[in-house]
């Protein structure tokens, strides 16, 4: 078996979220079907993802892994497309490495897993192109590579970085961004939102901002939450944590929007956090403003240890089944 | 009568271009209808636009003007919405002035046209909000102001700036940008494209890159045409000229893409330009990569002179009806 890492993005508008569900169009379902079809597998393979996203939530820097029989890669030699001729200094492999999603630290250069064909990189570039031909344009796999030893898309992750985008322009925001920027019908004051956000940073029980799941911990380390007005236009929040519980970013954003437009005082979100129970005054912000921008992993040598530690912590704190990080 | 300047943007995907056409959904038609409805005019008023865009072409910095009876503004006092309360330091007028599209040089601060009500700015802010409620979300009017003396959205313009966006990522570009970024199925070399573009700058007869119209000059001054790879992702061309003739940017881009992916030599676009006749080897690039980003105007004191000069030059060179700049 070989473990592949997939770097991907999607417009969540027309998906019922990431997770496969019978009868629904989901990102996981579409990619698994495409992989099964391209590699002529008897069953679609199962993907493991870094951040399961809700219906309507987007991703630019989503990461998943899939385990496949090495022999399945041979299928990529059949009908190999040659529409992207290798050019001096701009070959397929080299060009892909210069692009976003192409910066996997500790990529297994020169240390292929046992049994891998020597031209595995070329075959995986073919896989990327074939996925581009099979998938609808609202989901794109930007890169596929052999995962380094110990890599687990979910448990090896050090952090998830989300962006939340909101425009308070009086007549409405940029029409070309309307699928990923929420429009807010009152002027927003980013300084107040940042003052309120600063009081939420650090390790806390975020139960007040999470949809509770049985047996799942709501303790998270919020590493960054900061609003910046993007080039005079929409406000963009950068939100980073080790992991998130369900609807956490959107609930945090909903609380901060109430501060930003003057409906709540700066102290309010921290007071809600301190009560550690769901607060009906917190409105979960709309899904379409949220985008998973990046998943961070440690250097290759620490991947396996990180995965083991994450599994241990989650299992212990949950007292049972490990919780999933969701947005 | 009062002349209003409108700053606006649209997602061109679902429009049959800017120009009003019977039975078609056009940007001009939608805004004219909305203005007529909000101001309760007997007929929709006629808009004059800086850059007429083709079907599928987008705009972020489009500018138009409209002449209205001063009395029509009184309609805005009826049912005036108060959903955006004035806040200390963040009033409607002040906030709008900090935003894109709000930077009209020489705005008529403190010098209202004769007969204008003293609260005209407040009424026009109401108009922006009401347009936001009436128009579909794929077209937004970001600002409406009283046009300075001598202002003509079309003839006073000094330059039009367009962007053309294309991604050559092997598996496809960012799904969230697919409506405004064209995907090109071969790697592109921006240095070669810029070398070719540099030979096209200056005042030339661009007949080779224009759809010919009877009586219309094809002499234009191409002030800037430069490709930059945006943050490691798509390539973005900035294209600036005094004005453009029909399909000119897309034909120039089509020629440069052929250089960028190695199908044509760097010298080729300049050779085509030199022949001054349409070249069947030039493929007009897809409309959805093109966006009108900015229209530049001179300082207020020079607006009328600029408009008169533009009219004179266009009429003389065309030997009749003044040509329209189109993309």
Automatic annotation (TrEMBL), chains A, B:
Superkingdom, taxonomy of origin: Bacteria
Molecular function GO labels: RNA binding; tRNA pseudouridine(38-40) synthase activity
Biased composition (Gly residues): 90-105
Disordered: annotated span: 77-116
Listed Gene3D superfamilies: Pseudouridine synthase I, catalytic domain, C-terminal subdomain, Pseudouridine synthase I, catalytic domain, N-terminal subdomain
Coiled-coil zones: none
GO biological process: tRNA pseudouridine synthesis
Residue intervals of the Pseudouridine synthase I TruA alpha/beta domain: 196-298
Keywords attached to this entry: Isomerase, tRNA processing
Alphabetized InterPro entries for the sequence: PsdUridine_synth_cat_dom_sf (IPR020103), PsdUridine_synth_TruA (IPR001406), PsdUridine_synth_TruA_a/b_dom (IPR020097), PsdUridine_synth_TruA_C (IPR020095), TruA/RsuA/RluB/E/F_N (IPR020094)
Record-linked SUPFAM superfamilies: Pseudouridine synthase
E.C. code: 5.4.99.12
Amino-acid positions noted as binding substrate in the UniProt annotation, renumbered to this chain: 162
Active site: 54
Reaction(s) this enzyme catalyzes, per UniProt: uridine(38/39/40) in tRNA = pseudouridine(38/39/40) in tRNA
HAMAP family xref list: TruA
Similarity field: Belongs to the tRNA pseudouridine synthase TruA family.
PANTHER family attached to this UniProt entry: PSEUDOURIDYLATE SYNTHASE (PTHR11142), TRNA PSEUDOURIDINE SYNTHASE-LIKE 1 (PTHR11142:SF0)
Subunit structure: Homodimer.
Protein name: tRNA pseudouridine synthase A
Organism per entry: Nonomuraea muscovyensis
Gene of this entry: truA
